Structures are given as structure tokens and as C-alpha cells.
Description:
Chain A is built from ten helices and ten strands. Chain A is an alpha+beta fold. The relative contact order of chain A is 0.12. Helices cover about 30% and strands about 25% of the residues of chain B. The interface of A and B includes residues 28, 67 and 278 of A.
Amino acid sequence: MAALPAGFGMPEFDLTEDQRALQEMARKFARSVMAPRAAECDRKGLFPEDIYRKGWELGLMNLNVPSEYGGSGLSLFDQCMIVEELAYGCGGMTTSIIANCLALEPILLGGTEDQRRSVLTPFCREYQMASFCLTEPGGGSDAGGLQTLARKDGDSYVVSGEKCFITNAPHAKLFTVFTTVDPALRHKGITAFYVPRDTEGIVPGKDEEKMGHRASSTSTVRFENVRIPVSQRLGAEGDGFSVAMRTLDMTRTPIGALATGIGQAALDHAAAYSLQRRSFGKPIGEHQAIQMKLARMATLLHASRLLTRHAARLIDGGQNATLESSMAKSFASDAAMEVTDEAIQIFGGYGYMKEYPVEKLHRDAKLTQIYEGSNEIQRIVIARELLKKYQH
Amino acid sequence: MEILVLVKPVPESESRLRPSPDGRQLDTEGVKFVLAGYDESAVEQALLLKESVPGSKVRAVALGPAARAEEVLRATLALGCDAATLLEAPPGRELDGAETARALALAAAKGPADLILLGKQSGDQETGILPTALAARIGRPGFSNVLDLRWDPGSNRFRFARATEAGEERWEVPAPLVVGLQQAWNDPRTAKLQNILRSRKLPIDRIPAAEVAAALGPAPRESATKFLLPPPRTGAKMIEYGRPEEAAEQLVRILRDTARVLP
């Protein structure tokens, strides 16, 4: 009989006093600064730059950048704890706040010390946004098949192609971009660069109209013969695929935390409403039909939190957690969909109205099943990692 | 300028407080104690003065059970205070305003301060006794309900306003003095994440409970005998209805027949 998969031991998740202090700070920001503006930004598709700037001032924006470059230098566990709190206030704003982590991670993982110092430090010294450019109109999940071409020309590359669904692109000062030096090489041709926005030939598109995360900004980015010096390449030619995958290994788990924060907001709204709304002579929370829902919602959220924190703790300990982080991301995002759906059901007709907060949460939850690796890809990864453990 | 800012750990405003089983005190099990209310303004004001007068230092002082007071002091360090002193409250002893003043005088005696700043009243009991009680205890001028507190380097004086029932008083007073603050120039700032982490590692000076107890002297002359929750409100009648017209009809009937406020 095959050995049982490793890594399923019971984790210890008591927060330290330091962590509680961070959590409390993020909670206060989410509830007093983000949440009061969430409905308006969602309705009008506003990008609340003042809130992002304030978040940057408080150190909430470059959570993964080590303190030697002026960042917050938090463990992934602490990042997840903070992201969950922020998402409770507004999922869309959180996406824009943590997009810097995603865009700067390739530089942390694939950059030289000089590159790291020269690129990361300015982000911690003043408020700026960066965007991660991987997905293309022709495909997201199939990252090996990307078409944006980097043609070597002397001591630089000339990059042409189009990227889409790029978070914060209209506002970014820097892009990390994944290209291929030869599409026929598939994964082995993928090459990563960073490039400042003011480089000639970079053209962000118009803001997309989205179903949710409407306080965040998303657009295409066209690269029209953009000349990028070799010194801005991350690693060697062909290293890009590994840089992209290792980046997503780091940022996938916080998406689980983001989904959990959205779900927790839905549960809190629904539970409070169930004690106040009456039918058949009593609060609906006293009807078993509603109690069953609330119990399941709370259980799903608890499980989501445990999965994300466990994956984060493994990664912080230097272990490979591809399996666990994929489980956390896919489970927590599916859970957020179910929990926000049930929250609408508990609110009944009011839940379907934009005047009430829960339908937005459902729209915001949807994206967490899609971005940073669709849940279908996550399950392929889970199966692959799982079967590896049973092979002799 | 040396500034002492006095802060009190108080229950978070959303906490659900209830009397302990013996009814003699509040049950603080699971209640989080925080920096709140006028004390937040006092800390903000201390930091604003520090920033406007080069070379200034702010020391935060809190009295209370060690764990509670420490959390509140860490919060002040994260906001930008330079040092902190924790006065450990003697266990099992409830302190009134006069006794609190005696205990805090200990911290004031540790070093010369040009300004002792505190909220005009605490965020929980709100008695407002402390600013004047402390000033009397340490023999310095004391002012409460203070607004718009500024240091004027030309005249070497503090200038400020006091909000009174009769209007606003304007004052100019040389250091040292005690100020109970009503409002800072700004809304209280939020601590940056990096500063929160840094503050966790800073030292906190401690004055042990025995020393505090000795300063308090004999047991207080007053003590709380019983804590009671406000009686539950009764008499509210919920109107169950389907259409607004039915609700209006029911309401009119109640106002006319039961409450008899309509003809």
C-alpha cells in the first residue's frame, strides 16, 4: 500500500501578539477606510487612488518586499492574515492593493541583487503601482503558449505583443512582462523582463467594465516594438516560465485569503440580518432552514482559513506547498462563491437588490475562482502533485 | 521639550460588558483593552508638538494590569512615542480618580516634563477628575477641556484655548503644566505596519505594583458595591404587516386606542 500523503499534520494557528496587532491595524483600515466607500466604487467603477495611497503610507501595499528594500517583509502567513482583513472591506480594492506583490515578486525571485535594489526600493519610498503581465488574449492558463515576442537586437530586446486582464495597468509605473524568444520552444523560450511605463511603445488600453472587483482597474497592455535593455531581463533567456510559476506559487495562497475575507463579510451580513428579519412570528435565524445555511457557511470559511494558513505556514518554512496552496486557493474561492450565494438567499429579494451589500460580494467572489490560476488548473495541479506522492 | 502623555487602557467600544457573577465589578473576561477616545487625541497632540519643536521627546505612561497596559503602550510606541512607562496596578484594587493621580504622580516624578498631557476624560468611566487631581497632586498648573494647544518658542509659553460653558478662554502659560485635552489639531493618525512591528521590540520601563501600592496609601474610602446592567427596555410593540397600508392602519389604531395620542 502506498504511503499516505505527507504534510497533513494539524497546524498550530494561534496568532502571536505581534500578529494580532497587524491584524487589528488591517481590520481597522478595511472597515473604517475601505468598506464605507466600497459600494460607491463598485457602482460607479471608481478607482479610489486616495485609499490606495493611504494603504501604501501604512505599509499595506508591498507586503512581500523584504525590509532591506524598505518593504514590510512579512511572512506569507502574515500576508494572508492581512489580505483576508482587507478583502472583508472590499475585494476589488484589495486586488489593486496586492497587485504590487504579484508584479514585484518576479523581481524578488528572478532578479539580481542590483535589480532588486534599484527596482524595489523606489516602490517602498514612494507610492507607485506595478503590473504583472502574463495573460494574453489568446490564453491564460496555457502560459507556455504565450505569443508576446522578444527579439534580441544588440544589447537589448525588442518586444511586441498584447497582454490582457492586467490589474492596475492604466496606473502602473512599472510592468513585469513575460515574453517568448521563440514560440516553438514553448516553456523553454519564456523570458521575463521589467520595464518602466514611460518606455516608448507601451500602450495600456481602456479600463475594462467588469462584473466585480470594480474598484480595481484592469486593461490590456500593448507592447509595440518596445526596446528593453538586457539589463532588465530577469534571469537568463528561458528562465521566465519558472519565474512565473514560482511567483504564482507565492501569490496563490493570498487569493485563498482574499476569498475568505469576502466570504466572511457575507456571513457577517447574513447572520446579523437573520437575527433582525422576522417571518412567521420570529427572527428567520430561529428557523432551521436558515440555521443550516449559516452553519455550513461558517464551516466552509473556517476550513478555507485553515487551508490557506496551513499552506502559508509550509511555504514560510521553506517547504514545497504547490499541492496545499492549490487546494487552499481553489477551495476557498469555491467556498466564497457558495457562501456569498447563500448570503443572498438569506436576504431574499433584498439580497438581489444593489441597495444591500451581499450581491456585490457574490460578484467579487466569482473572480477568485478565475484569476491567479483558474480552479480547473488548480485541480490539475492537485491531482498531479497527489499522484506523485503515490508513485514508487 | 519633554512630554509625558498619560493613556488609559479602556474596553473596546464594541465590547459586550456585563457584571461579574458576584456583581462587584465588571467581567473583563475576553474584553479587549485599547487606546481610545480623548487619549488618542492626547497622543496625537503630543506627537504633533514633538514634530513642531525639534529635539522633543514623548514618553507614554499607562497604569493598569500589566498585559493591558502593555498593549496600549505598544500602540503609542507604534504611533511614534519615544519611550513608555508601565505602572503595574496593584491586583484586586479598584482605583478612583484621586488614587490614579497619586499613582501617576510616581511616573511624573521620574523625570522633569515640560508638559503632562492626557485626555480630558477617560474612554470608559469619563469622570474627568484626573487632569486637575494630578495637577494638584504634583503642584503644577492644570487645565482641562483644552483645544488648539501650541508651543510659542518666542514667549516660551504654551498657548491654548479652553472650551467652557461661557465660551472660549484663551490662555498663555509657561511650562511645566498639566493639560486635559479635548481635541488635537488633527484626527489621530494610524500606525504604519513597519512601526507596529518595530514597536513590539522596544523596551518598556516598569514601575512594579508594590511601589504603586505604597504610593496609593490606605484603602480607598469609597468602593463600588454593585454593578447592574440597565433594565431591559419593554413596551416596544413590533408591527407585523404585509403591505405599508396595513402597517399604517395598525399604527393609527395603536396611537388612537392604546396610546390615546390621536383623537
